[in-house]
Automatic annotation (TrEMBL):
Lineage, uppermost ranks: Bacteria, Bacillati, Actinomycetota, Actinomycetes, Pseudonocardiales
The UniProt record lists the keyword Manganese: no
Highest taxon above the source species: Bacteria
Keywords: Transferase
Signal peptide bounds: none
Keyword Transferase included in the entry's annotation: yes
A Pfam family recorded for this sequence: Acetyltransf_3
GO cellular component, one term: cytoplasm
Domain N-acetyltransferase: 15-156
Name of the protein in question: Protein N-acetyltransferase, RimJ/RimL family
Gene Ontology MF, one: protein N-terminal-serine acetyltransferase activity
InterPro entries in the record: Acyl_CoA_acyltransferase (IPR016181), GNAT_dom (IPR000182), Ribosomal_N-acetyltransferase (IPR051908)
Length: 166
């Protein structure tokens, strides 16, 4: 595994709390993160998913400090598939870290988890996320109309996939 990534630890709760407070980042979490306790609960959930073999989340490191998250979740063994997601703290964006992390987690999913197909999607109004996906080798597969619903507004998403044979 690339030294760019490491599993989250409970000691990282302050980083999670700070990330969740950034604009629009609350959408990246499966629960409200409004305290250190909530941040620790989120990290505990990630650890449980790893134990259950359903998801593998990693802190993305810059100079040894966590600045983002990359994950392969919805691990499905029968069809050998998984769902890739990523986010970066504001100060770490635009440095290529998300693309490198996405490549690294893909290699982990193919070599360590034995998955064959990885999928991800991003809102059409997020060209930076599209650059991460394509830069990490994920081919565009199509648009899902009105897929996401945030703050009373529906958003189209673009779906990408990467195969172990790509």
């Amino acid at each position: 595994m690339d030294t760019l990534l490491r599993p989250w630890s409970l000691d990282d709760a302050p980083v999670i709390l700070a990330a969740a407070a950034e604009e629009m980042m609350d959408r990246q979490f499966t629960m409200p993160i409004d305290s250190l306790t909530a941040a620790q609960e989120w990290i505990t959930l990630l650890m449980a998913r790893r134990e259950d073999d359903t998801g593998y989340s990693f802190a993305v490191l810059h100079d040894g400090v966590p600045v983002g998250n990359v994950a392969v979740s919805s691990v499905e063994r029968r069809h050998q598939t998984g769902w890739v997601s990523y986010w970066m703290r504001e100060e770490a964006r635009g440095k290529g870290l998300a693309t490198r992390a996405c490549r690294a987690v893909s290699e982990f999913a193919f070599s360590e988890l034995g998955l064959f197909r990885l999928e991800l999607a991003h809102r059409l109004d997020n060209p930076a996320s599209c650059r991460v996906a394509t830069g990490a080798g994920f081919a565009v597969e199509g648009v899902e109309r009105a897929r996401l619903f945030y703050d009373g507004v529906r958003f189209d998403t673009e779906t990408h996939a990467r195969l172990a044979t790509d």
